[in-house]
Amino acid sequence: MEWTGKWWVFDGPAYSRLWEKSAIGTLIDGGGLALTDIEVIFSRNHRGVGFPLIPDDSAMLEWVNERLLNDPALIQEYAILEALRVPGNKVVLNHNFSKLGIDNCNSWGIRWSSDKHPARDKPDSEVIWFNSSELLSGKSDRAHSLESLLQWSNEVYSKDRISEVLVVDEEKSVVTYRISESNPTGVLRPPDFNEFQRISNLKSVDLGEDGVFIIDGDDWEYEAIGLPLHGGRQLENIEYMVVQSVTNDATENMSVSSSIILDLWKRGLNTRSGFKYGTKWRCYPADVGEGHAPWLVVDPSSDNPKNWAEACLSSRLASGVNKDWLYPIKEGENDWRYLQISRPPSDSRWSNPIRH
Predict the structure, then answer these.
(1) CA–CA distance, 260 with 264 (Å, rounded to integer)
(2) Where in the chain are the domains?
(3) Deepest of 11, 70, 119, 225, by most Cβ within 10 A of its Cβ?
(4) Which distant-in-sequence residues (6+ apart) come within 8 Å of 161 by Cβ?
(5) Which residues are CB-contacts of 192 (< 8 A; sequence separation ≥ 6)?
(6) How far apart are CA 128 and CA 106, in angstroms?
């Protein structure tokens, strides 16, 4: 086994089997297999391949220590590869895309299910990974801002592939999530300028942090605005700010929260507090009582998760109550797009072997 500066060349008797059965590495001209560090470790641990440079566990430890100097993310990346491959998936890593005629992309790897092979079948998904402690807004050689993550997922979707995010924690345990762009819409009539102006002119009582109370709520034309109480209507400060901003033609100065809720109303959605679900809003496609609220929407200015561990927890809680967890991403002055982070089906939740 020889190091070329980019990969290990393995030309032992098992190399053709590794490719034909498991699609590990990539075949090279003249015979042999090009392997990355993590593919060497996986082949030794899970395919019983013996490498002359790593004759025993002691040599393995020394080899890993040496390779960590070349790639500090080696341990995390191995955990990700193991989580994907132990169930039988085949994975081609980024640096081999061009060798296999795969279009260049920003993914860490591309996955095929256990009954497929890169030599003959189309892939099922593209994969990126994060440490659980990484900030959602962080940027590094691997990481994506949420804006670029949304763009990446759409590019993956355009190729009829699944966008998979694998997250590894400090114990090197791996969980899987899927990301996509959501387009939540409802059937309510979006409020117009006249409606906002009418509400603005109604007699109200300032409730301080609790918003305002509209005394005359008999002829209320838009159910999404405010909460019906005691024959009147209570509006949160955010809602009343939207009313005032639209009426005064000052929407460019709205807060992030107000801008999002206005966008949700324009989509025909009925917004209600998402407090008991750990988000800012829960959204109904119609009137409350006509069905459950399919969407939980985060307010990026206040209750947004800081890192991937918190995002995964929030998404899991949403999944537990059959709702989609959405993170708003601003585009333009007051336009918003929604990134959905969701748990995959039970047969696609890749995780590495449990260690005690």
Answers:
(1) 6
(2) 189-255
(3) 225
(4) 110, 123, 124, 125, 126
(5) none
(6) 8
The answer to whether the CB of 64 falls within 8 A of the CB of 41 is yes
The residue assigned the tokens 């189309």 is 122
Tens of pLDDT along the chain (356 residues) come to 788 778 888 888 888 889 999 999 999 888 889 999 999 999 999 998 888 889 999 999 999 999 999 899 999 999 999 999 999 999 999 988 888 888 778 899 999 999 999 999 999 999 999 999 988 865 444 446 788 899 999 999 999 999 999 999 999 999 999 999 999 999 999 988 988 898 888 888 889 888 899 887 667 878 889 888 888 889 999 999 999 999 988 888 889 999 999 999 999 999 999 988 989 999 999 988 777 899 999 998 886 788 899 999 999 999 999 999 999 998 877 789 999 999 999 999 999 886 54
Distance, CA of 146 to CA of 156 (rounded, Å): 15
The amino acid occupying position 135 is L
Q: How far apart are CA 115 and CA 90, in angstroms?
A: 9
How many C-beta neighbours within 10 Å does residue 151 have? 16
Q: In whole angstroms, what is the distance from residue 118 CA to residue 254 CA?
A: 50
- Beta-sheet pairing, 335-342 with 324-331: antiparallel
Structure-token pair, residue 154 = 């759409």
CB atoms near residue 158 (< 10 Å): 8
Structure tokens at 331: 């585009």
CA–CA dist 123, 116 (Å, integer): 8
Give the separation between CA 14 and CA 319, rounded to whole angstroms: 43
DSSP letters, 285-324, are SSSTTSS---EEE--TTTT--SBHHHHHHHHHHHHHTT-E
Instruction: Please answer whether residues 255 and 273 qualify as being in contact, where contact means their C-beta atoms are separated by less than 8 angstroms.
Output: no
Q: Any idea what DSSP says for residue 121? A: S
Which sign does the torsion angle of CA 260, 261, 262, 268 carry?
positive
Number of H helices, E strands in the chain: 9, 18
pTM of structure: 0.88
